[in-house]
Design goal:
The chain has 325 residues and is mostly helical. The protein has one domain: Hypothetical protein af1432 (Orthogonal Bundle). Helices cover 47% and strands 12% of the residues. The protein has 16 helices and nine strands. It has helices spanning 16-22, 25-29, 51-64, 69-77, 89-92, 105-110, 114-120, 125-129, 146-158, 163-171, 185-203, 206-224, 237-245, 250-257, 296-299, 301-316, and strands at 2-5, 9-12, 173-176, 179-182, 264-267, 274-276, 286-289, 292-295, 318-324. Strands 5-9-6 form a three-stranded antiparallel β-sheet. Helix 1 packs parallel to helix 4 (69-77) and helix 3 crosses helix 9. It starts with a strand and ends with a strand.
Length: 325
């Protein structure tokens, strides 16, 4: 199978286990889960990328840097438990970590054909299910990892980012002591700064967070009124939205009506509808310098200052008033 990815290039994938997993039901469902969640209703270009695209991208990035077949499989499967509208669920069931879907990861896989596929190809299911085995796939903030890198680069590409710059980021990545680092300090700074910019302009922008909260409120009502079941949340964006739209529930329909490119908000600490926070997103990559690596913030005091201010602002959140459209 030939895969041509706009970010990572051309790959010939002949591993039968990967080809079978790509056609498994948990992976195919991800084609109908938008990477950008509720904000697909604010920006038409956010309809481009699905969770499947991201999962495939993670696998290809790992493959590009020589990860084991098991880690490539784990990368391909890492998001199969995402609910409809991706991280909207973390506003339905709030938490600081935004990891609701991860609670169901093993259950989704075990109820599917994935275990049989892995057994057929003599791949350890237990090893694949334990992300602690795969330091390139997942790593805690502020480290780089394949999941974090691909999510960012794919979003950057979607919003019209310079593809040459995107590819330059990839070109300067290295694997050193089983983790992703940059070989060039200038590129590391570019990457980390672009990451903060994306967060401020999109992922943590108060208007975008408000959109997530509005859809979450509609889903909450749907669950309370038995219009939706918890099982429905593990279907697709369109299936959940269709049930909400057909509910004839006036509160739900009023909320859904707000989900459009003309949504307007105001920031007002004294008169607000929501005090909104979202998942803390940033990177402070390690940079390879003469055989050793150093945090970018330790090499660049200007970036360190900006990162500190950014995180302080994100932790404080936003007091948002919905003013219609």
């Amino acid at each position: 199978m030939t895969i041509i990815d706009p970010i990572y290039g051309r790959f010939e994938v002949k591993d039968s286990v990967l080809l079978e997993l790509l056609n498994s039901s948990p992976l195919l469902r991800l084609k109908e889960i938008n990477q950008h969640g509720a904000s697909q209703y604010l920006f038409s270009w956010k309809k481009k990328t699905s969770r499947f695209d991201h999962s495939l991208g993670v696998m290809l990035l790992l493959r590009k840097f020589g990860a084991s077949l098991e880690e490539q499989i784990a990368g391909l499967l890492h998001d199969v438990s995402h609910t409809a509208f991706s991280h909207v669920i973390d506003f339905v069931y709030p938490s600081d970590t935004h990891e609701f879907h991860e609670k169901y990861y093993q259950e989704i896989i075990l109820r599917s054909e994935v275990p049989q596929i892995l057994e057929k190809h003599k791949i350890s299911l237990d090893k694949v299910l334990d992300e602690e085995n795969f330091s390139l796939l997942e790593s805690k903030l502020p480290n780089l990892c394949a999941d974090r890198i691909d999510y960012f680069l794919r979003h950057m590409q979607d919003c019209g980012g310079d593809l040459i710059k995107v590819k330059r980021h990839v070109k300067n990545l290295r694997v050193f002591q089983k983790e992703f680092v940059f070989s060039n300090q200038e590129v590391a700074l570019d990457f980390a700064t672009d990451y903060l910019d994306q967060n401020e302009r999109f992922w943590a922008h108060p208007r975008e967070i408000a959109c997530y909260q509005i859809l979450a409120e509609a889903i909450k009502i749907g669950l309370k009124e038995k219009i939706l079941s918890k099982k429905d949340l593990f279907t697709t964006d369109d299936e959940v939205m269709e049930k909400l739209q057909k509910s004839r529930n006036s509160k739900i329909l009023k909320l859904i009506k707000l989900l459009n490119p003309e949504l307007k908000i105001k920031l007002n600490k004294k008169n607000y509808d929501y005090h909104l926070k979202t998942k803390l997103r940033y990177v402070d990559p390690k940079v390879l310098v003469k055989g050793n690596f150093f945090r970018l913030s330790g090499l660049n005091p200007i970036f360190k200052k900006r990162l500190k201010g950014h995180n302080k602002k994100m932790k404080a959140g936003f007091y948002v008033k919905i003013v219609g459209f």
